[in-house]
Amino acid sequence: MAYKSLLTILTAGDPMAATLDAAVQLARREEAHLDVFCLGVDRTQTGYYYVGAMALIQLETLERAQEEAKALAEEARAHLGSQDIRWGVEAAVAQVGGLSALVGLRARFADLVLLPRPYGEGRGVEAEAILESALFDGQAPVLVLPPGGSVERIGRRVVVAWNQSAEALTAVRRALPILRAAEQVNIVIVDPPRHGPERSDPGGALSQLLARHGVRAEVSILARTLPRVSDVLARHVTDKGADLLVMGAYSHSRFAESILGGTTRNLLEQAGVPVFLAR
Predict the structure, then answer these.
(1) Which of 21, 47, 164, 215 has its CA 20 to 30 A from that of 12?
(2) CATH fold of the domain at 157-278
(3) Same fold, 5-145 and 157-278
(4) Nearest 5 degrees, angle CA 156-CA 204-CA 155?
(5) Are the C-beta atoms of residues 34 and 86 closer than 8 Å to each other?
(6) What per-residue confidence (pLDDT) applies to 89?
(7) pLDDT more than 70, % of the chain
(8) What is the CATH number of domain 5-145?
(9) pLDDT in tens, 190-199
């Protein structure tokens, strides 16, 4: 399977130029169609205003969201107008609580969704909601771009984070087009359980699966020498000179990760390379 239908979702405050440039690079490389979904987000919190004010506030915020969506779409069309790829731009408005269905419907029919990093300065709650909607409601793999990230040379040296979970295996399967084209693939396992199903050969079954697809992968088994697994993985990506990290998303519940933190969230906050997520 190749990535022939790409989707990127933009909201006000997103690094539009960098995200679109990366999406165009990948669309050109994959000879794919790029869809750009521009969202104006109504952030009204129902119930926080005195009686009678809600309707006026909703009208005002809805108009603002419509203006945002229209401006984003116009800017996106201007940015893509001279590009030699197939593309389309669509604009819509949604409240934060209604993003799941809207984003999920579009992501469901995309081979790959490209999004800017959802955490950091200037990023709103809708950024994380869009990422989770694409993963959970759209069941689509997502490529998360770090600030200023490029995908022009992505996928030459790939690190695969492996923890024997269903999410990690799904990510590997969704990333096969990239892995088959890679020059080097490294399967990394951090502190594997002594009594796990792969205790005698951590990563062996996965490397065999990849070999049958023409992927030559090496396995690295690392001790948890830093407080967080995400720290160990991030350091390993740097040590390997990797340009992409492939991993399963949210092996724990989203609620637990949002409150306590987790490998997915921590890596998205600190990774200096694009992160390919699926579940």
Answers:
(1) 47
(2) Rossmann fold (3.40.50)
(3) yes
(4) 10
(5) yes
(6) 98
(7) 88
(8) 3.40.50.620
(9) 988 776 676 7
> In Å, how far are 164, 177, 180 from 210, measured between CA atoms?
15, 11, 8
Is the torsion defined by CA of 111, 168, 21, 137 positive or negative?
positive
Q: What is the value of pTM for the model shown?
A: 0.90
- Is beta strand 112-116 parallel, antiparallel or unpaired with respect to 86-95? unpaired
Domain boundaries, the chain: 5-145, 157-278
The tens digit of pLDDT for each residue in 229-265 reads 999 999 999 999 999 999 998 765 555 455 445 788 8
Length of the chain: 279
Question: Which CA distances in Å does 198 have to 165, 204, 213?
Answer: 12, 8, 21
SS3 assignment, position 225? coil
Cα dihedral 251, 19, 215, 1, rounded to 10, equals 90
